[in-house]
Write a structure and sequence with these properties.
574 residues; alpha+beta; two-stranded antiparallel sheet; 21 helices; 15 strands; 32% helix; globular
Length: 574
């Protein structure tokens, strides 16, 4: 009996010493910059649910090897024409091939080695030695057809379309471009001789991109006592970063590394050794966000990525929009207030408790004295305070600069305003008077330059679709297809004009998508090709016009608006 008691006592002492050691180890910090990466498969063994919810996201599929399972495009021998070139998509065994035949006998052939993206469209990479190049062809998931990458970015049809340079305009090196935000622990590995030794811990955006390198976490949690202690006591684990346990600012830095394009003071070190940021750190230690007045070699080359008041107008600047928002003055408000990686629909990744108006009503009361629309109407807070004034990946996105509707200011800035984006038949004057009627005490934020705001009765969206700059035209086209209040015949007339005559294929594509949304029985995607030549587009538009009621545009007003439309290509970063 005495021996048994001694044994129990020794076990108790041993357990106590082991527990003491665990608690002491948990109290010591870990420098994650010195820790190795292990990959998402190592996380799955203990975090099955989180692994499964991440696995459903588009982050996971941001970059992948070009296996039959991962390639979404129909490489079945089809072809399409653009820029005087014929692009051929085929498959030989396990290889997916893209060929390009020029009008003067020029020929380019690539074997797809990796894919980029899987949500709206999928891009393709070919390998040449130590370098990967993004190819000039992508697959559009919604339309289920291939298109030239010139139709994704805000560049017009080239003046000399048959040239090799025009065809390869968007062939971009992956190693020191896309690699940074589409993978875990990217390191371009640029050598002194200009070659690359590029490494990533894992293709795609996986667990360790947000939680930090996991080798130490895996090794220490081989101890079952440590695991059980963490599970039941819920102490912080210094070997891993939990963004939900960080301050809103530090957690938003994890997102802002990729969702807020940045500039570093030591570009050479970045290209040689990679991004030193690890989750949990202050992102500002390593880089700073790009703004409208950010310079590179003394030039403000980023200004076209912002509206004139500094509001971002492209995706990948959501972090900047958050920083500009009055809500960000609350230290508890950050990306995680609305978004979640593990408990949401992959499209947008909104938290379940942040859908509808709930993201706003957590802090703000919503009553009839505030809203211009009945509370039961299908108008959400974000429709007014986060309008779709951001372009990216062939779509219109919500601004992350939480703001108040100011139609006159927005017209002066040359962008859609929240009111006429929904009331598509109305003018800026109507919207500005409605704002004054509903909120007589509201003030107007300055900005916007000296554009002539004289109106001739043309709806604000139509003015932008025909006379705005390329981003404004793309956003106006999209808004016409989403508007809750719109004369369909009038909108169709404006959209047909854009589809036939706008020099930017991206604008033409969004105009056709809006056209389909206004149809009771949407036309098949094959009914209009945004990449086709002007005569083919005109014939397609004539066929579409014959299927429904269309109000033609006034030719004089249209001509006057188009004369003022900006047509210069926008370098938006690729």
């Amino acid at each position: 009996m005495r021996r048994a008691l001694v044994g129990v006592a020794l076990l108790a002492v041993g357990f106590g010493l082991a527990l003491f050691a665990v608690r002491r180890e948990l109290a010591r910090s870990v420098d994650l910059r010195e820790v190795a990466y292990v990959g998402s498969d190592a996380c799955r063994r203990c975090h099955e649910d989180h692994h499964a919810s991440w696995h459903r996201t588009f982050h996971r599929t941001m970059t992948r090897e070009a296996t039959a399972e991962n390639v979404l495009g129909a490489f079945d021998g089809r072809s399409f024409d653009y820029l005087g070139w014929r692009f051929e998509l085929s498959r030989e065994g396990d290889e997916h091939r893209i060929g390009a035949q020029g009008p003067n006998g020029e020929r380019r052939d690539w074997v797809v080695d990796r894919t980029v993206g899987s949500h709206r469209y999928q891009q393709y990479l070919a390998r040449d030695g130590d370098t990967w190049w993004r190819l000039p062809v992508a697959w559009h998931r919604e339309e289920e057809r291939f298109f030239s990458m010139n139709g994704a970015f805000l560049t017009p049809d080239p003046q000399a379309p048959a040239s090799v340079e025009a065809m390869e305009r968007h062939v971009t090196r992956w190693n020191d471009n896309c690699v940074f935000c589409h993978n875990v622990a990217p390191s371009p590995g640029l050598r002194a001789d200009g070659t690359f030794d590029t490494e990533v811990a894992e293709l795609g955006v996986a667990c360790e991109a947000c939680h930090g390198p996991g080798a130490e976490h895996v090794a220490r949690n081989a101890n079952p006592l440590r695991r059980y202690w963490l599970h039941y006591v819920e102490d912080d684990d210094p070997t891993l970063v939990d963004p939900n346990a960080l301050s809103a600012e530090r957690a938003s830095d994890v997102c802002g590394r990729c969702h807020g394009q940045r500039k570093t003071s030591d570009l050479g070190a970045l290209l040689a050794d990679g991004d030193p940021f690890v989750p949990g750190e202050d992102l500002a230690r390593h880089s700073e966000p790009l703004w409208i007045d950010t310079t590179l070699d003394g030039e403000e080359i980023f200004s076209a990525r912002f509206w004139e008041d500094g509001t971002p107008r492209l995706t990948a600047y959501e972090y900047q929009g958050w920083l500009q928002s009055p809500c960000a003055r609350d230290a508890s408000f950050g990306c995680g207030s609305c978004h979640s990686m593990h408990e949401s629909d992959p499209a947008g990744q909104l938290r379940e408790d942040a859908r509808g108006d709930r993201a706003c009503t957590t802090c703000h009361s919503l009553d009839a004295s505030h809203a211009a629309h009945p509370i039961e109407a299908e108008v959400r807070c974000v429709d007014c305070h986060m309008p779709r004034i951001v372009y990216g990946v062939l779509d219109a996105h919500r601004s992350h600069r939480i703001d108040v509707p100011e139609p006159a200011r927005d017209a002066a800035l040359g962008r859609p305003d929240a009111c006429t984006a929904c009331h598509a038949d109305r003018t800026t004057t109507w919207a500005d008077r409605a704002r004054a009627r509903f909120w007589p005490r509201a003030t107007t934020r300055a900005g916007g330059g000296d554009r002539d705001l004289t109106e001739d009765g043309t709806p604000a969206l139509t003015r932008l679709l025909l006379g705005g700059d390329p981003i404004a035209r793309a956003l106006a086209a999209d808004a016409m297809g989403r508007a809750a209040s719109v004369s369909r015949p009038r909108a169709r007339g404006a959209l047909l004009d854009a589809m036939a005559n706008d020099p930017y294929p991206a604008v033409r594509r969004l105009a056709f998508r809006a056209w389909r949304r206004l149809e009771d029985a949407p036309s098949p995607w094959e009914a209009f090709d945004p990449m086709a030549t002007s005569d083919v587009r005109a014939a397609a538009c004539a066929s579409l016009r014959a299927t429904t009621v269309v109000t033609p545009l006034d030719p004089e007003r249209t001509r006057a608006l188009r004369e003022h439309a900006a047509q210069a290509p926008l370098w938006i970063g690729e």
